Each structure stands twice: as C-alpha cells, then as structure tokens.
Amino acid sequence: MLTSFGNWAVIDIETTGFNADTSFLVAIGILCEDEEKIFFTERTADEKKILHQFLNFLESKGISTLIGYNIKNFDIPYLAGKLLMYGLNPREIDKYILVDLYEYIRKVKFESRSLSNICNVAMEFNRDYEDEFPPVLYIKYLDTREQEFKDRIIGHLKEDLVSTRILAKKLGII
C-alpha cells in the first residue's frame, strides 16, 4: 500500500496528440482520496495557466506520489515538455514518486493493454463512458464552444481517473 509514500493522487491528461511541441494540452485530471479536480484548457492559450494550477494543486494537497496508467511514457514526459515550452521548470514533476500501473500490466498477456480493455477483461469493470476520441471533441469544442463537447471530454477524463483508481486498488497499491 502506498500509505508509506504519503499523499497520493491519480492523474491523467487529455491532449490533441502525442508530441508536446505540436499538440495541445486539453485537460489535466487529478483524483485524490478526498477530491477530484479537472483543469480544462478553455482556449489553447490557457495551457500555461492550467499547468500552474495543476502544480499548485498538488503542492496545496501535499501530494508526494502520482499514480497513473502509462504516465512514465506519456503523461509525465508530455507535461514536462509543456513546462519547458512555457519557460517553466520541468523538474517540478521530478519531486514526485511515480507509480505507473502500466508497468504492472505489461507483464501479463492481454490482447490489448489499453486501460479500457484492462477494466473490461481483467477487472470485470465495464466502463460506462465510450465516446468519440477526445481530440476530435476538443476541436469541435473550440469551433463551436458547445458545452456538450467539453462535458464529453471531461466525462472521458473522469472515467479514466476512476478506472485507474480501481485498478490501483485491485493491484493493492492504494
């Protein structure tokens, strides 16, 4: 159990692509023991603002451990790239202990190691939220400003956060 590591938070991000230099950070989600927080990029110019909000929130909650699914290969490098892009210190993320649940799952043979598949197959937990790809929804949101598109992105992000927390519990990590 991670209680020896202090306060933990499950994190996930939504982006429009894989490369921090050529895509947009859409949202950052955090799920702590007692609180859920979503930072959403209303305009692409807000990326720096939500990075600050994310780091300040982690600091204010005394978080020492970040838990995620494939965070060492995607989320954390992406966030570090965005921090660097905006002249912020990418080492701000280095102070956290990282627990990547994908490292546990990759050792087991599955047809697909996507978080959705792991939930459905290994945990017998059916994810309720299946929707369009979040980058497509974000482009629609930017074009129309229709709340429905934002809500669907946030719904997807929340589903990932909850799924990751359930997986962490099943693995005995939290």
Mean pLDDT: 87
Strand order of the largest sheet: 3-2-1-4-5
CATH topology assignment: Nucleotidyltransferase, domain 5
Largest sheet composition: 5 strands, mixed
What's the tally of helices?
A: 6
Mind telling me the C-alpha Rg? 16 Å
What is the annotated CATH architecture?
A: 2-Layer Sandwich
Globally, the shape reads globular
Backbone structural class: alpha/beta
What is the total domain count? 1
Total number of strands? 5
Give the DSSP E fraction (strand runs of 2 or more residues).
15-25%
Residue windows where pLDDT falls under 50 for at least 5 positions: none
**Would you identify the CATH H-level superfamily?**
Ribonuclease H-like superfamily/Ribonuclease H
H/E element string? EEEHEHEHHHH
Distance between the termini: 5 Å
Please identify the oligomeric state. Answer: single chain
The CATH class is identified as: Alpha Beta
Proportion of helical residues = 40-55%
